[in-house]
Design a protein that fits this description.
The complex is a heterotrimer of chains A (355), B (399) and C (84).
Chain A: E1 3-11, H1 47-50, H2 55-71, E2 78-82, H3 88-100, H4 109-113, H5 118-127, E3 132-136, H6 142-156, E4 161-168, H7 172-180, E5 207-214, E6 224-232, H8 237-250, E7 260-263, H9 273-280, E8 288-290, H10 292-295, H11 301-315, E9 335-342, E10 346-353
Parallel strand pairs in A: 2-3, 2-4, 7-8, 7-9
Antiparallel strand pairs in A: 1-5, 1-6, 4-5, 6-10, 9-10
Helix pairs in contact in A: 2-5
Chain B: E1 4-12, H1 19-27, E2 34-35, E3 48-50, H2 56-62, H3 73-89, E4 101-106, H4 112-124, H5 138-148, E5 155-157, H6 163-176, E6 182-189, H7 193-201, E7 222-223, E8 225-233, H8 234-239, E9 246-255, H9 268-281, E10 290-292, H10 299-313, E11 320-321, H11 324-327, H12 334-348, E12 350-351, E13 373-374, E14 379-386, E15 390-397
Parallel strand pairs in B: 3-7, 4-5, 4-6, 10-11, 10-14
Antiparallel strand pairs in B: 1-8, 1-9, 2-3, 6-8, 9-15, 12-13, 14-15
Chain C: H1 2-15, H2 41-55, H3 64-68, H4 72-82
The chains are: A alpha/beta (355), B alpha/beta (399), C mainly alpha (84).
């Protein structure tokens, strides 16, 4: 199972509208919340279509448009989205209207737009795409579900061009709710110094990372997804180690073949120890990286990490800002392993390799 | 070619807390639509719904949970149905090696029942913050996984009202591709103020009992429920000497690509989904013995679904019925509930009646089946269509 | 009537979020749906709530919307006739 990345469209808190992150693109933020740098939507969406759209929908539709253009694809063979929270803004809008007006004088627009598959559905309507259209909503494995589905489809028919994405938005209310629930650091002054702020909590983020993936080789491909697997609530360190080793072995690889490991370290002292244990054991001597200081923590952040990895493999250069240790990144960079988990519940491995 | 079979099933709906009770209700025209008793809404006296008449405490007791207050209603329903499916298809929890068993679950609003209760508290303090974690759609999947001890590749998807058919579709593919040996696939959705008011704003709720395929239909009744089936490869099921309920013979998902809520005038998406599912099954339209329709009772759905059925099957349209008048429209659970009803059709050689029908839709050439009917049923087509033009069909065959 | 039409223009722009339109852009005699302004069935439902909320007029059957909301003028006429 392989999925070559043919096109990219990425909206994030960084200047990721280009395809590869450069040192001069890196944006630093004060405080514990990172918001997307949004493009000029007028270029991608007509006013009559735009008027009902919430922010996440505008981000999704534009990133999709950019991605299709980048790949030179007019009509994808499938649209497969991953989103942890879905249409959080529209959901809250309708919910607040219910609560504030005691279920009276409600209008349908925000309810309609609150459905989790709205982004994929809108893209289908805009493109007149009658094909397969799925949306995975599985916590921090939402993008992983979409990726797995894409790879299954491509192993059935490698000629397909699939529009694959991870997308989530952070709203003011949800930020407040999750702040109260202890998700975020209170006293952080700079996202790039995330790891210097010990203690519980991370920083909030969001993003929309779109890919065109196909089973066919092409000189313009960025990189390829070479594997995805997930596991739930590991019961011991050994189980984690065995899982990682078996994942690589299934693809005839070992850790020696992995040139860079991108971890989901998010600065939360309650959970990061799992990554640091691996740094000292199984991953000892390996160059380790992290990415959540750039995009924040959100359910589909692994799609941002995948975008980052694809750029590194394509350009054969790794931005300094993501490196965690002094172990050298050897060139050529052939294989990048992304290991991400949230609250030690859902763990995921994604392998990206050069074409 | 790996054949996919169903070896277990479980369900809870307004017409019964397990498959047997549901079957009995279907046979005796005992529907579950009535006035709203448990959901706290101002529409209580004005709208009907197919509510499951158990409080959350009672549901917790049924599923053997002691701290029921910490669970959303969506999760409680899911746990009950998934546990039944597991027991009927896999065995007693703890006896079976679950390393290659997967849960693919679906829901449309997840833990909304708790979120709408505590939303203002969420914004003010951390008092009810534990329900922040149960808000998103994956919570019920996690609860099911924990309850059944399943940790491999669990997934959740949400494509509105076609969700659970899509769980079966991807579950079948996971087995075909060797990613799992057994998949517990299905969906769960509890009634909530959010969905009740949402459908009400769309003015597609019938104030009386829904009348699918009737010329005078004015909308749907919402329901709640959960259902799951166990999928396995034929080889694995045979090796373990499992009872095989039916074969999943064809499946497809297509998109209408017309409008966020309305179907295209000729039902192009529904047509594509049915046609592709049939193509994959290798069956000719004339071999389908019964269609369990999506048939929600809305003006738009029933007409366009009917037109799409005609485009494929006319002039020999097989018996069609919608069972929504029994269970209401249970959103993410609707597809898999219809799948279990279709399996019961095959097992019992019965076609369940389309209640509340009196007058044919002018534009259509066929009427739905009105009375319980004995018939030879080898192949059933079932449809599930959702917002965002998400259209899915499944072909089930007697094994 | 003209005053009501003017008021409706502003209300419609607001509830339907027609962010790039001015009241002067809406022709009171041009169709609001389909070919004209390009509104759809969801907009019709929004307008039904607008009638109920701002004018106290309740429409039970959404199918009536198409006739009532044919143009701004038909909408204004309906309001004038039905407002208590």
């Amino acid at each position: 199972m392989e999925a070559y990345i043919r096109g990219i469209g990425n909206i994030s808190p960084q200047h990721s509208w280009g395809n590869v992150i450069l040192a001069e693109d890196i944006v630093s933020y004060e405080g514990n919340r990172l918001n997307c740098i949004e493009p000029d939507y007028k270029e991608y969406i007509k006013p009559i279509q735009r008027r009902r759209m919430g922010r996440i929908l505008k981000m999704g539709v534009s990133a999709a448009g950019k991605c299709l253009r980048d790949a030179g694809v007019d009509m994808p063979d499938a649209i497969i989205m991953g989103t942890g929270l879905g249409m959080q803004g529209d959901t809250e809008k309708f919910l607040k209207a219910i609560l504030d007006n005691d279920e009276k004088f409600l209008t349908p627009t925000s309810f309609i737009q609150s459905t989790h598959n709205t982004v994929g559905a809108h893209i289908a309507v805009m493109l007149k795409c009658n094909k397969y259209n799925f949306t995975y909503v599985n916590d921090n494995l939402s993008f992983e579900g979409a990726l797995l589905d894409s790879m299954i489809r491509l192993s059935d028919d490698p000629s397909e061009k699939i529009l694959l994405a991870g997308i989530d938005e952070m709203t003011d209310s949800y930020f407040c709710i999750t702040k109260n629930a202890g998700f975020w650091k209170e006293d952080i002054s700079d996202n790039l110094g995330l790891l210097k702020h010990a203690g519980p909590g991370s920083i909030a983020g969001e993003g929309a990372s779109f890919f065109i993936v196909t089973g066919e080789t092409h000189p313009d491909n960025y990189a390829r997804f070479a594997g995805i697997d997930t596991f739930y609530k590991p019961e011991s360190d050994k189980e984690i180690d065995d899982f990682i080793i078996a994942f690589l072995a299934k693809r005839s690889l070992s850790l020696d073949d992995i040139d860079l490991i991108i971890t989901g370290i998010n600065g939360d002292s309650r959970w990061d120890s799992g990554y640091f244990r691996l740094q000292d054991t199984l991953f000892n001597g390996k160059p380790l990286a992290y990415y959540k200081h750039l995009c924040g923590e959100y359910y589909t952040s692994s799609s941002f990490a995948s975008w980052l990895a694809a750029g590194i493999l394509k350009t054969q250069s790794c931005p300094e800002t993501i490196l965690l240790n002094n172990n050298e990144v050897n060139k050529p960079i052939r294989n990048i392993l992304i290991y991400n988990y949230l609250r030690n519940t859902n763990h995921a491995l994604i392998l990206l390799s050069v074409c | 070619m790996t054949r996919i079979v169903v070896t277990g099933m479980g369900m809870i709906t307004a017409i019964g807390k397990d498959t047997g009770e549901n079957l009995e209700s279907l046979k005796t025209r005992r529907h579950g639509v009535g006035s709203i008793k448990l959901l706290d809404t101002i529409h209580k006296d004005e709208l009907l719904a197919a509510e499951i008449r158990f409080t959350n405490d009672e549901l917790a007791a049924i599923s053997g949970i002691t701290d029921g207050e910490r669970y959303t209603r969506t999760s409680l329903l899911g746990l009950i149905a998934a546990s039944q499916a597991y027991e009927s298809g896999i065995g007693k929890y703890g006896d079976t090696d679950n390393t290659r068993t997967t849960v693919v679950s679906t829901t449309t609003v997840g833990g909304m029942d708790k979120t709408e209760q505590y939303y203002r508290d969420f914004l003010e303090s951390s008092k009810y913050s534990h329900f922040v974690y149960t808000h998103d759609c994956s919570d019920s999947t996690r609860q099911i996984s924990d309850h059944l001890g399943i940790r491999h590749l669990n997934s959740t998807l949400s494509t509105a009202c076609s969700s659970s058919i899509n769980a079966i579709l991807i579950g079948a593919k996971m087995i075909k591709h060797g990613l799992a040996d057994r998949v517990i696939a299905g969906g769960t959705d509890a009634l909530s103020k959010f969905t009740l008011n949402g459908f009400n704003t769309l003015m597609i709720l019938d104030k009386g009992h829904c009348r699918p395929f009737d010329a005078s239909r004015t909308g749907l009744n919402l329901g709640e429920g959960a259902a799951y089936i166990v999928l396995e490869s034929e080889a694995a099921a045979k090796k373990d000497n499992k009872k095989i309920y039916c074969e999943i013979n064809g499946y497809a998902n297509a998109n209408d690509a017309y409008h966020q809520t309305a179907s295209s005038p000729d039902g192009y998406g529904p047509y594509l989904a049915m046609k592709e599912a049939l193509d994959i099954s290798g069956l000719k339209p004339s071999q389908i013995d019964y269609i369990n329709a999506h048939g929600t009772g809305t003006d738009n759905n029933d007409l366009t679904e009917g037109l799409a059925i005609e485009k494929i099957f006319a002039p020999d349209i097989p018996p069609v019925s919608s069972t929504k008048p029994y269970t209401g429209h249970t959103l993410a659970a609707a597809g898999v509930i219809d799948v279990i009803f279709s399996i019961l059709s095959i097992q019992q050689q019965l076609i369940f009646p389309n209640l509340n029908f009196s007058r044919k839709i002018e534009e259509l050439s066929f009427e739905p089946v009105r009375e319980l009917q004995q018939a030879e049923i080898d192949h059933v087509l079932t449809n599930s269509f959702g917002f965002g033009g998400n259209d899915s069909s499944l072909v089930l065959s007697k094994y | 009537m003209e005053e009501l039409i003017q008021k409706l223009k502003e209300e419609i722009i607001e509830v339907l979020n027609l962010e790039e339109m001015e009241p002067g852009d809406i022709d009171p005699d041009a169709p609001l749906f389909g070919e004209g302004l390009g509104l759809d069935s969801i907009d019709a439902l929004e307008l039904i709530v607008l009638l109920e909320k701002n004018y106290g007029i309740k429409i039970e059957d959404p199918k009536d919307g198409r006739k009532i909301f044919f143009t701004l003028r038909t909408m204004a006429e309906y309001i004038t006739e039905h407002q208590k």
